[in-house]
Amino acid sequence: MIMRALRHVGRWRVGRVRMGRTLAQAIYVAMLGTLALGWLRGAGVDPKPSWHNVRARIVADLARTGGKHLVLVRYTPEHFVHAEWVYNAADIDAAPVVWADEMDAAANARLLEHFKDRRVWLVEPDRAEVRAVPYVALAAP
Q: What does pTM read for this prediction?
């Protein structure tokens, strides 16, 4: 279907000038480049593990320790918004690991009170080494 669509794009004209052919060729080159980048990433050429693999490793590490956990995530202002660390199972209260954004001291206190039966961790995904460390609550103003 894509090739058929490109064939139709290739027929586009602006007046007497065939603009579609150039556009179709550019789209084709971009698709090949995307495919090559995906292959390189899948082949392990990228030495830095992707954020979702690091998150999965943290979940697995916490699951091995047993018990219930609450992970607060502290982003920097420069954080890449499409790398979202905070998502949870449908039944949050029953999940062994719950993820939440770190908020102000008062909101964090309410969250910690709701999940008082859990060990609380802090993850800072924008650091060079991403790991879960025990959370130290900030004092309420």
A: 0.65
